[in-house]
Amino acid sequence: MPPEPRPPGRAPIAPLAGIAAVVVVLGGAFAYAGGFLSPSRLSPVKLVNAFGQPASDALGHRRNHAKGICFTGRFDSSGQAAAISRAALFAAGASAPVIGRFNLGTPVFASPDDSVRVRGMSIDIRPNQPGEWRSAMINAPIFPVSTPADFYALLLASGSKDQGAMPRFIAAHPGFAPFGAWATKGPWTGSYAEERYNGLNSFRVTDQSGTVRTVRWSMLPAAPVQNVDPATLKDAAPDALEKEITDRVTAAPQRWTLQFTVAAEGDPTADPSKPWPAGRQTIDAGTLVVDKIEPEADGPCRDINYDPTVLPDGMTTSDDPFPAARSSAYAVSFNRRTAEAADYPRTETYPETGGTSQ
Amino acid sequence: MSAVIVATGRFSPIQRALHWLMALAILAMLFIGVAMVSTIAPAYLTLVSIHKPLGLAILLLVIARIVIRLRRGAPALPRDLPAPMRLAAGLSHLAFYGLMLAMPLLGWAMLSAADYPVKVFGLTLPPIAPHSDALHTLFWNAHRILAFAFFALVLLHLGAALFHLLVRRDGVFQAMAPGIGEPGA
Q1: Which sequence ranges are marked TM in the entry (chain B) (predicted)?
Q2: Which residue of A has its CA nearest to B1?
Q3: Overall domain count for chain A
């Protein structure tokens, strides 16, 4: 259609208003998409802020599991997990380097080692070919809550100054009880090497024939487990766990067995606060060998985001909502701490009260 | 004799097709980008899994588009278009080409600097930047800030296009409008 030049003398009020309306509507849609009009949307920034990390302590560190120490080693596949996943790192005879991190489940970097109930292990298995796998596990046998929204509520309750907030949360979330029982009555150990680390979230694995199964996994320690009275840990130095694992690995490599548990029909795959029934098929996928410990400040784990959605071909996320939430929140933590790297100097001078000698 | 001189040239069909295809892709990309960083819902992973291949597709398309633009040029603007508008048009188009090139590269470089594997269409892309906190922060800030600038430019461009179509009626919109046939012919 040929454009008709506008007759002179008529103010183009209607067209200008129309143009403004189009621009405002599109801009508004963009603001809506970005959550700027939805204060109730659970954003990764809200979740990360809910950890309530003291600002002075936070700079340069992870926003949760803030205190940790790097390890390196390798993963030697047994070949048995090739029956459930076509991922190259599970093939018989496969071996790949690992960059990992032992850590404490606390947002406070300055925490003494004895004060933190949840201990974690993160791994980044890096085969020479594509097929990298990252996972972050904890020693709790079960997750405290069913959904990311409940996790956010737990953070708000546990960080609240209101004494009644946690009791109210526990009353409203009966699924918290098994975790609560473990946290208060479960066994403690005196070493990162003696912990069993559990992935808790479920993922899907695909075998060569395309069959899909849902699994969870754990790292089972080879070291004999000696349970200790947590009261005795309080007498130890603030970095006792870091010193202990450094000495132990220097003396001899430490090993864990990576064990998959395969869900059966009807198991609660979407809820990491619910265990699967005993007797499910397990597969020992191989051995994690940890042969070197390095302080985090200069260590290779420092600038790795242990995003649990970095998965090789042959593994994908499942209906468990947590890996997505973790991926989203970990990115915020990573963006913040890398921007603050100057506040966490690379050649760390440990405070004199610290236990890790350099 | 009319008050406004009407431009009669049009972009070539391939240029118009690329423009509208990329307009859709870029709008989708900006909406996906701003939405994905706003949520921890499972949609986060879905949006990220679209964001990366779509970004790579835009990078490949804009390279083709620049080559075609350099070969075939653009129709002249109306001779009576005021100089400030002429300048704004030229600068905004330069900014578009710069952003279309820079945004995918910044996203890719940002993940490279984070030592985060970049997977698209099942392939792992090689890193294009070294693992570095400082570079990650630089690229991430640039990607984020330029994304908002890009969207602002899209709004400006849309407003200007509609101004040409509805107010000036000078054929500039028709030069890029979809459909066959020649306007003003």
Answers
A1: 20-44, 50-68, 89-111, 145-167
A2: A5
A3: 1
pLDDT tens for each residue of A86-131: 999 999 999 999 999 999 999 999 999 999 999 999 999 999 888 9
Is A166 inside any structural domain? yes
For residue B168, list chain A residues with Cβ-Cβ distance below 8 A.
6
Per residue in B12-47, pLDDT (tens digit) is 999 999 999 999 999 999 999 999 999 999 999 999
Residue ranges with strand state E in A105-196: 119-125, 133-138, 188-189
What's the pLDDT score for residue A347?
80
For residues B19 and B93, is the Cβ–Cβ distance under 8 A? no
Domains and CATH numbers, chain B: 13-176 (1.20.950.20)
Q: Could you please report the per-residue DSSP string of A9-59?
A: T---HHHHHHHHHHHHHHHHHHHHHTTTT-TTS--HHHHHHTT---HHHHT
Name which of A266, A264, A296 is nearest A104 in CA terms: A296
**Under-50 pLDDT residues of chain B:** 1-2, 183-185
A175 interface with B at CB cutoff 8 Å: no
Banded pLDDT at A65 (limits 50, 70, 90): very high
Structural domain contains residue A22: no
CA A131, A137, A142, A143 dihedral sign is negative
pLDDT for res B182: 52
- State which residues form the domain around A262: 48-316+330-343
Residues of chain A contacting residue B31, judged by C-beta atoms under 8 Å apart: 29-30, 33
| Distance from the B9 Cα atom to the nearest Cα atom in chain A, whole angstroms | 12
Judge whether A40 lies within some domain.
Answer: no
**Interface membership of B163 toward A (CB under 8 Å):** yes
- The per-residue pLDDT for range A226-269, each reduced to its tens digit, is 999 988 888 888 999 999 999 999 999 999 999 999 999 999 99
Cβ contacts (< 8 Å) between A204 and chain B: which residues?
none
Does a structural domain hold residue A321?
no
* CATH value at residue A310: 2.40.180.10
Look at the block and give the residue holding tokens 């963009």.
A30
Portion 51-110 of B in contact with A at CB < 8 A: none
What value of ipTM does the predicted structure carry? 0.92
Asked whether the CA dihedral A61, A65, A69, A72 is positive or negative, the reply is negative
